[in-house]
Amino acid sequence: MSGLSVKRKDIESIYFGGGTPELMVDYLPEIIDLVRSLFNIKGNMGIELHPRDINETLLGKLKKYGFNMISVGIQSFQDKCISILEREKIDSIGKLKLVKEFKFTVVDVDLIFGIP
């Protein structure tokens, strides 16, 4: 197979989401290297995070690996709704402020509306 050249396909963006993709953060360099060997990533690289997992170390690694989009699954800023959703109470505003410090190009927040 040596000597063969494979044209890499252009892709606009790549997104790691669903479940808890931050669990694979230690494998991201290998995954990203593999993806980049197969594709030209023309645009954004994004990842979904649970607010409890956001810290300076994780955000620094994501920035280093080339991620520029962060999606934070906050779901609600209201304690009552967080309780109904059976999620732990987290300083979501503090987590978003920390994300802001890292100057990601795109930051989005998942919110659930219509919770009884």
From TrEMBL:
Transmembrane segments annotated in the record for this chain: none
Positions of the Radical SAM core domain: 7-102
Example GO molecular function: catalytic activity
Gene Ontology CC entries for this record: cytoplasm
SUPFAM superfamilies referenced in this protein's UniProt entry, alphabetically: Radical SAM enzymes
Pfam families (alphabetical): Radical_SAM (PF04055)
GO biological process: porphyrin-containing compound biosynthetic process
Protein name: Radical SAM core domain-containing protein
Organism from which the protein derives: marine sediment metagenome
